[in-house]
Amino acid sequence: MRDSLSGGFPPVQADDTPLAFREIAEAGWFVDDRGAVLLVALNRSSGHPGPEDYGDITYFEARANGRGMMDYDLSASDPERQNILLRRSLAYACLALRSVSEQIRTPVRAYISMSKGGLSDETLTANVTFSTVRGDVAAYIDDIDKYQEEALLELNSSDAATLLAQPGL
């Protein structure tokens, strides 16, 4: 599965992002009272378990900000499934990273994972999540090369500026 990204990245644009995910990215980010950097649209309600319930703040952010990429409209046997899921995930991650306001000083990373469904289901799925990088807390993914059974990609704001085509360019 790791080799699925070896051919480089497909070109992506905002329209590759499903509407519901575009709306999540466009709603922006906030810092909660515990210091967690969260997507507004996914974390509006209070009463979420906090970082103390998940071990640390980066893992909490990844749990609170993560979602499976929409794929109900794709056939499991579609030869383009992988490419479409990757484009959707990349575009969403880039839009969300671009929407991080300058007031949030803690760097935010996007993590895209693609893997086969599981023991009885070999359908390719994708997940996108976000967490911050903090010097005093272990990174959400500390050694990306340890992951052998899935394709895993980490993006930062510079990547987002490069990968997502600007409309009209």
Structure description:
The protein is of the alpha+beta class and 169 residues long. The chain has one domain (2-43, 51-164). It is built from five helices and eight strands; from the N terminus they run βαββααβαβββαβ. The protein has helices spanning 19-27, 51-54, 57-65, 81-98, 157-163, and strands at 12-13, 29-31, 37-39, 67-68, 108-116, 124-132, 151-155, 164-165. The strands form three sheets. Strands 4-6-5-7 form a four-stranded antiparallel β-sheet. It is globular. The mean pLDDT is 85.
Number of strands: 8
Radius of gyration, taken over Cα atoms and rounded to an integer in Å: 16 Å
Percent helix range? 25-40%
**Separation of termini?**
33 Å
Mean pLDDT: 85
From the spread of the alpha carbons, the general shape counts as globular
**Order of neighbouring strands in the sheet with most strands:** 4-6-5-7
The amount of beta strand, in percent, is 15-25%
Brief descriptors of the model:
8 strands; globular; alpha+beta; single chain
Short description:
The chain has 169 residues and is an alpha+beta fold. Helix content is 28%, strand content 21%. Helix 1 packs parallel to helix 4 (81-98) and helix 4 (81-98) packs across helix 5 (157-163).
Describe the SSE topology.
Layout: E1 12-13, H1 19-27, E2 29-31, E3 37-39, H2 51-54, H3 57-65, E4 67-68, H4 81-98, E5 108-116, E6 124-132, E7 151-155, H5 157-163, E8 164-165
Parallel strand pairs: 1-8
Antiparallel strand pairs: 2-3, 4-6, 5-6, 5-7
Helix pairs in contact: 1-4, 4-5
